[in-house]
Specification:
Layout lengths: L1 E5 L3 H13 L3 E5 L2 H10 L4 E5 L7 H11 L4 E6 L3 H9 L4 E5 L3 H15 L10 E4 L2 E4 L4 E4 L2 E2 L4 H12 L4 E3 H9 L9 H12 L10 E4 L3 E4 L15 H7 L3
Helix pairs in contact: 2-3, 4-8, 6-7, 6-8
Main location: cytoplasm
GO cellular component, one term: cytosol
Organism: Lonepinella koalarum
Length: 249
């Protein structure tokens, strides 16, 4: 199983290669984004570990280029306290982040959690297809489309969409999304789920009835709403535009 490690610090790369090799991963190294893109053009990787601060081509620029051509999962390695970099990375399609310095066991756990939810080695069958009002989700390949057009979702965005569809008309908490999709407990001030759901909202096509596909329940989470579902069934806590549509205050 091949991973791509992108970091300009040779010492850190050596430590991580040794650690990941013990876990059975084959690791290719790149000292900057330019080299990483060259390796991506020649190899298939299950996951990319991407540092942010690098010379020649930094991690944010590299991530932009990666997402133009690949949906390979990306785990960002950021300096502790660089909240803006983390948020920008998530908005650009990174699947998760880990702040330096990090615990070796946590890094391995994050990698394995991402790989578990991105495993596309499941045989294609009718059971792998979810059709929700024209949204087609292939759970084997983690691809989503609408009327034949790919939505270009990252694996994490796909996981969020799959989960809220599986609980249509029921509130799904941010804690649940973080645990089941990202594989981690949501920590205070962690906005990663907010960013992933915002990206998902932007990528979903207009609905035929012009309603939103899902609503934000302030302080609670999100709810995917079926076309025939009567809005007054949504519990208290629904967002303002949903109340307005229902005639509420």
């Amino acid at each position: 199983m091949s991973l791509l490690l992108v970091d300009d610090d040779q010492y850190i790369r050596s430590l991580l290669v040794d650690l990941l090799s013990l876990e059975g991963f084959r690791v290719d190294e790149a000292e900057n984004g330019k080299v990483a893109l060259e390796k991506l053009a020649e190899n298939n990787y299950r996951l990319i570990l991407l540092d942010i601060m690098m010379p020649v081509m930094d991690g944010i620029t590299t991530l932009k280029e990666i997402r133009k051509h690949y949906n390979t999962p990306v785990l960002m390695l950021t300096a502790r306290g660089d909240d803006l970099d983390r948020i920008q990375g998530l908005e650009l399609g990174a699947d998760d982040y880990l702040a330096k310095p990090f615990n070796d066991l946590e890094l391995i756990a994050r990698i394995k959690a991402i790989l578990r939810r991105t495993d596309a080695n499941v045989a294609r069958s009718a059971q792998n297809i979810i059709n929700f009002e024209g949204l087609i989700l292939n759970t084997a390949t983690k691809q989503a489309s609408y009327k034949g057009n790919s939505l270009g979702l990252t694996v994490t965005e796909f996981g969020c969409l799959e989960l809220i569809i599986s609980r249509v008309n029921l509130a799904v908490s941010k804690d649940d999304l973080s645990l089941k999709v990202l594989g981690k407990t949501l920590s205070p001030f962690d906005r990663s789920i907010d960013v992933h759901m915002s990206n998902l909202r932007k990528k979903l096509p207009p609905r035929e009835n012009n309603d939103a596909w899902f609503k934000t329940l302030r302080g609670r989470g999100y709810v995917m709403i079926s076309d025939e579902y009567c809005c007054h069934h949504i519990e208290q806590g629904e967002d303002a535009d949903q109340k307005e549509k229902c005639g509420g205050g």
